[in-house]
Structure of L-histidine N(Alpha)-methyltransferase:
Amino acid sequence: MLEEFKNDVIEGLSRITNKALPSKYFYDKRGDDLFVKITQLPEYYLTRAEMEIFQKRTADIIAALDLDSKKRYSLVELGAGDGTKTVHLLRALVEGNFDFEYLPVDISSDALDGIAAFLNAELPALAIKPSHSDYFKALENFKQDGTAKIILFLGSNIGNLTDDQATEFIYRLGSSLGVGDKIILGVDLKKAKEIILPAYNDQQGVTAEFNLNLLDRMNRELGTNFKRTGFIHAPIYDEEVGIAKSYIKSLQRQSVTLGRHRFSFAKDELIHLEVSRKYDDDVVKQILSRTDITWEHKITDSNNFFADYILQRN
Ligand SMILES: C[S@@+](CC[C@H](N)C(=O)[O-])C[C@H]1O[C@@H](n2cnc3c(N)ncnc32)[C@H](O)[C@@H]1O
């Protein structure tokens, strides 16, 4: 994984224009801890909104999944994180005597260790099989093995993909699933900039710390020599299209080395880190229109900030 990290950094920072780093590298131990802090910030409504869906509308989710009590299910969660939302669904399924196992997939081994310990304590009877993998790679292993599958892709993780990448991802996901398998897709809905932008630029600076932690990670793991004081966190939200973007901005002309590689930054040059797409029904329909997946149900929180779409493979 270190070699891949290094290659991605060299590729993304050697560019003359449009420098970029993949956001999946946010999640080292400190990144995981900072993300959990972000989910508790007053400005970060996303987790609270989806938590409300998983706590208060668990019965609606289970009804929408239309489960067969005689079948065995694999519940696969892509980018599982800390599992604090999923536990409500898992508990209801255990209490409903459904036959299933839970397979969290995450690129962060710390996140997987955390979720396994958390679920062992909360639901000792639950069968859990963590998988340390990039979820794009995990899709390849899902082969149609005969178990009915329910895929969870929560927290608007899909929003980190462009619409074309999301279509490709859902298409590939569909080809690894059997007819009738389900997907629970959690997405952040389009809304006013005044609500969205502070979620990526909180007053306490935790999100800034989360983004800039990537510089520390590169220094520690790859031996780069980024100076933290030379860069700031710079998010934007394009309300017309519905996309938030996170950048790191270079405050001065400077260069950074990685072994024999030297990356030059102009004053005010941006390094793109992450897109966070916001959705409405039209965007979701557009993405699904080029896949074998259809939209069966939509469950929202009471503010209509967030939606979990229940989708089905045809
Ligand atoms: C923003 S957090 C969301 C966690 C959880 N789904 C939620 O809704 O709270 C993203 C999680 O996905 C994981 N992740 C990000 N990119 C990934 C990838 N390409 N493959 C596997 N896991 C990934 C991260 O390690 C992190 O735990």
Observations:
- The first helix runs from residue 2 to 13.
- The chain has two domains: 2-30+197-277, 45-189+279-313.
- The CA atoms of residues 20 and 94 lie 43 Å apart.
